[in-house]
Amino acid sequence: MLSIDPLAFISENTSDSYVIKRKLNPNGVGFLHNSIVVKRTSCKQLNPYCNKQNSTYFEIPNNNSQFCNMIDESILHYAEAHSTPDQLILQELQRETFLKVLLPAMISSPLQGALLRIISEMLKPQQVLEIGTFTGYSALCLASGIPNNGRLDTIDCNEELSTFHEKYFPLLPQGVKIKAHYGNALTIIPTLSTTYDLVFIDADKQNYKAYYELALQYAKTGAWIIIDNVLWKGKVLNPANDKDAVYLDSFNKQVNNDGRVDNVLLPIRDGLLVIKKL
Ligand SMILES: C[S@@+](CC[C@H](N)C(=O)[O-])C[C@H]1O[C@@H](n2cnc3c(N)ncnc32)[C@H](O)[C@@H]1O
User: Fold this and answer.
1) Which of 34, 105, 66, 38 is nearest to 235 (CA)?
2) Ligand 1 pocket list (CB less than 6 A)
3) Which of 223, 250, 1, 253 has the alpha carbon at shortest distance from 125?
4) CA of 158 to the centre of ligand 1 (A)
5) pTM over 0.70
6) pLDDT tens across 177-225, in order?
7) What's the CA-to-centroid distance between 3 and ligand 1, angstroms?
8) How many angstroms separate the Cα of 173 from the Cα of each of 73, 152, 260?
9) For residue 27, how far is the Cα from the chain centroid?
């Protein structure tokens, strides 16, 4: 039996392929892909070392731009099911974001949120900077490990999102450490006069090079910078017709050649670039 996420259904079934379509979750939660064709294949064709002769496997074409997660969705669901779930308040924030905000998929996924939370709890950063607050989900995750006398500055140019911040930040203990700023991050960061232990960049992609330079300027030596969406749904592999993919590919190459940093690109969700300022 083909293992796919519960919202997907098989709409056509021929001898060598399936067409899978995906329903919109009734709560509005989840990604909406149109449809995807998967071909029947053998385990050996996918992996020459595979010895499971009797199983049927399905090849998912990686050029399908609708397929947002680059990791097989059943693996993703397994990983989510075997990770500590978000606290109820964060689950409610996810749900309200999908119900009420335009482009809700901009919010970090629960798995990515859990990773940001764990990183924050490992580093216990005193000062954190976030560029791109959106509804405040990642800010609450990143604030989780900040000690009581620490602070997270988060910046978003969309002031209408403040209703979310005012509602959700006070609901969790780490929320009191979050200071929300509204306006263009490029002009606000230099006014904050702080140096940071951890920076999370998750805003407009065409400014990533400028955000990266500012992050390096205001990060302490040995600080960490995490940058979201650097694989751009896998389009960086063949970026020709997508200006953000062209830009992000060039950005990834620039960081990889930058002697000021140590970097690892994690293929998690839309690609997370983790950088240490040397
Ligand atoms: C992908 S969302 C951030 C998601 C959030 N980090 C999360 O995981 O929940 C990007 C946000 O960046 C904001 N943004 C875009 N350009 C900006 C700029 N120049 N300065 C500040 N914020 C900006 C947008 O308003 C949007 O809310």
Assistant:
1) 66
2) 106-108, 132, 134, 137-138, 155-158, 184-185, 202-204, 207
3) 223
4) 8
5) yes
6) 999 999 999 999 999 999 999 999 999 999 999 999 999 999 999 999 9
7) 34
8) 33, 13, 35
9) 21
